[in-house]
User: Fold these one by one.
Assistant:
Number 1:
Amino acid sequence: MLRWLRGRGAAAGAVARVQARIEPGLWARVLRTHPFLAALDAAEDGQLLARAAWLLASKNLNGARGLEPDDFIRLSIAAQAALPILNLPPALYEGWDEIIVYPEGFSIPRVRQDEAGVVHEYDEAAAGEAWEGGPVILSWADALPTGSAFNVVIHEFAHKLDLSSGVADGMPDLGAHPGLSPRTWRRVLDDSLDRYIAALDAIEAAIPADIDPESEAADAWYSQLPLDPYAATDEAEFFAVSSEHFFVDPAPLAQALPEWYGLLQAYYRQDPLARLARAAGQARP
């Protein structure tokens, strides 16, 4: 099956061998598990399979904390990670060679200096992380569908694309996109983030004083937003969270921030909104 895969790089022959070993039934199961993948047409499906095979031939996917990734885990992660580069050069994911998968969430040591100059050391709970020049770290429990637009795999691999420019600032390398101006990208990114922060501030102001904004009781207010509130953290997180929503549940994003959606559509060379609408139409009796 897929456990034999090791090493970095992916020659054409290696990718072909991986693809040949992916059982159609297993691939179908992965697509059924993730509805946004099942919406791909036949040509896109074939392209995604090839990209997933390239990832599996290129990266070491290792379990942590006792997890032994089986073929479904490997292929599920590879398929989700391959979607953002469906129509982009696979080389954008080169320069590192490991994906580490925990069975569930994990903690990351952090060091932060506050405004008074005091240094704080603490552990931060996480579902994923992407290291510059290093591995992508994922929680398998969080890599499964949640019924929302949350997708830790797409989120962390969007960070890898962002880092392709050398810094995580919400602007990936646009070298393969001569029609996309860095100045336009920065303008639309900054304007969209400002508009989103304003919308988030309005939502938080509307939450009654007797409701803890950090509790599940506040979800009814936050659900009115087109993106998860974490998107307001900074430009890098805005790009990563936007990418999750763009692929999994694009309608609220396209409606609230159409110029930003259009920029993501041009960058990824995909239109998930049209794709999902087409699939929904085909599903009707």
Number 2:
Amino acid sequence: MISALAGLTRVDSGSLSVMGHDVEKGYKQARKALGIVPQEIVFDPFFSVRETLRFQAGYFGIASGAALDAWIDELLANLSLTDKADNNMRQLSGGMKRRVLVSQALIHRPPVIVLDEPTAGVDVAPRQTLWAFIRRLNHNGHTILLTTHYLEEAQQLCSRIAMMKSGSIVALDTTAHLLNAFSERVLKVIVAGDCRPVGGQI
């Protein structure tokens, strides 16, 4: 689904739109409205973190200048990357590279953000910082689609949760309702053979 939203895969049937823009017929507007953080770590090894973000902004027609530099500084601060701004991308750890990917997805201030397991490989402290930043973006009006295998992350960040199996949604509800529905634990014990009580007790 994420690949289809990004225009990397064509759907067999149906349609997808971002903020009312069809991802095929209005792909330019759809992609401007969308920021995607991929699960795979992809980076250009020839540029620093700041240069990488400036190039990414250029893809969306954002001119260099004080406004862009201020936004880049804000992104780097919120993602604990300020001290790495002038480092080459090759010098960063896997978790730092992932945070740069988050910055790239946000550089054009899209109203819809897709985060595909953004905290995989990220240490605890930067993860908490990233969570706080995601909450702030959502509070400021951004729609965020988060995929995660961490239940704690879903509980902390999501107002609604969808569970998928084999490409189909098998559950979709508010976080509170889903947790209440599946919070009961049942232990079933199947005993093979004779199971008579010993000493009158089981």
Number 3:
Amino acid sequence: MTYSVLDLCPVPEGSDAAQAIRNTVDLARRAEGWGYRRHWMAEHHNMPGIASSATSVLIGHVAAATKTIRVGAGGIMLPNHSPLAIAEQFGTLVTMHPGRIDLGLGRAPGGDMAVARALRRGMDPGDRFPEDVAELLAYLGPSREGVPVRAIPGEGTEVPVWILGSSLYGAQLAAHFGLPYAFASHFAPAALEQAATIYRKDFQPSLWLERPRFMLAINVFAAETDEEGAYLRTSMQQAFARLRLGRPGKLPRPVDDIEAELGPQVVAAVNEALRISAVGSRDSVHAQLGTLLERYRPDEVILTGQIHDHAARLRSFGIAAEAMIDIARATAA
């Protein structure tokens, strides 16, 4: 079972983007030693609590600071960019770091319409995502002599491309193109089981992939005790609630009583959205991860966790890695 990190490069309250980027590099180096296969970052814009907006730049920085872990986007929001520009960026990245770069593609804008206008994209009301994916794949595929536009670097690099999604649309598209599929179950799990079923049933083998490869995203808040794990989770609960209420900010400090902070109804809604999670002590996280893996049977998992304190975040990912290793050994036995 391959396990990976999804890192939004969080900017905690009381800190800044420069420290958040240093923390991301530190996490990637340690994750490499803990056996994580991939370290992915995601494109978000106009969010004070996330420092990964220039995702391609940050990927290059993290790849240069590590040696073996794959580094990539989970993901690039393709409607914000021309396929040629992304092909050139990731072609350049994989030329500098051969065999270590992944490109996950999302259909969401990573911001609101004001962001789309500021990016000079999103003015066409039509959905061009399938056409843009096909164009991007062509740029990264085998050399095409005589075509008017080529991605250089990019052409022939065959950077692994993943489709990201939280709905049946992404599952159908990934199956159609014969690409690996990562489901955003860490914050939008409603269609998880149906999407996984459709993707596996409709998958068409391709130049890129012979058989379906499904990635499950799981929140992890691991600590020495169940109480501490639940305490660490309150930062993400608050951040998620504020985002849904249109008040995004830096990653909040944890609180002792999350219901007093948000109210029982908001907490219930947030917990439902974040239900694909493992929270608590080593034993609790081990058991919860095992249950999720047994239920959904992913080919890979990607673990994430918005934790305010960097040392606690490192400890959480370290505990999670130990759990994944133990689960893999038990499965193989």
